[in-house]
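hi support,

uploading two proteins for the ticket. first:
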Amino acid sequence: MTLETEVYMKKNFVVFALFFAFASIVAHAQSANSVTNMINTEKVSWGQVSYFSAVAQGLVSENASNSEAFAAIQKAGLADSGKNALSVISLEELAHVLAQTWKVDNSLMYKIHPSPRYAFTMLRANGIIPRNADPSSVPNGHDVLNMINAVMELSANGRGGNR
């Protein structure tokens, strides 16, 4: 290979890498207001989690409200009829929504019976949920965003099971 060819290949690689990075950012972009609101939330609601899940699944646009996103998630069967967009979400319920949204099913029990209980156990085994966490506790916004990021990474690395 000549020096000229190597320089050309390096330039093409850098351009490709930058394009891929930009495309990834755009594909996972969320409304800045939703992220800011989530970070500042002490007790996360179903509507807030539904927004991120429904946008990621393409069920609603980024301009949708939490209520619209919740309705889409409820229609998809991820939320019980007794819940509403303002209801707080437990860690167990959150784990199930995240596992369903990003197709994480690397647990035999979750594959057999995909439920909040087994989703919680699976994400705890993957180190996404702390070992001493109570399944019925209500997470804060910062923790939820960290969990979303970790589940997305788990899924993107191919360790999330069948996609």
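and the second one:
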Amino acid sequence: MRGKGRLIGGAGFALSIFLVASWFLGLCTGGTMMTWPRPFSSVAWKQVDTSFSEDRCRMILDLRYRVGLEGRTPSEVIALLGDEREGRAGPPTHYVLCPTLADYLVLELRWRDGRVGSSRIYQS
């Protein structure tokens, strides 16, 4: 019985260390949402390598709130953000923003009557 208690206590301690280390790693690596915002640039947006760069995440606030996406047509969105449909028909629906510790943040566009009706950001 006593050995079982040590095992559970050890597992709890290991989990605590893991959680603190993960938090610290996120803090040290910039943790995606802790990066400094920067002005949106269509040219810079299109040139970003989303596998390694956080540049799109830094621009997303300016894009969504100053430049704006709602009300834009598919051709306006493609001119602004580029075409990432990879051969799919219809308006663009997703843009990869930047990597996180485990996966990516993604900008999703929801279309209504041929225009962007709303957008949201989610973790893939």
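thanks. also noticed: Helices lie at 2-28, 42-47, 55-67, 74-81.
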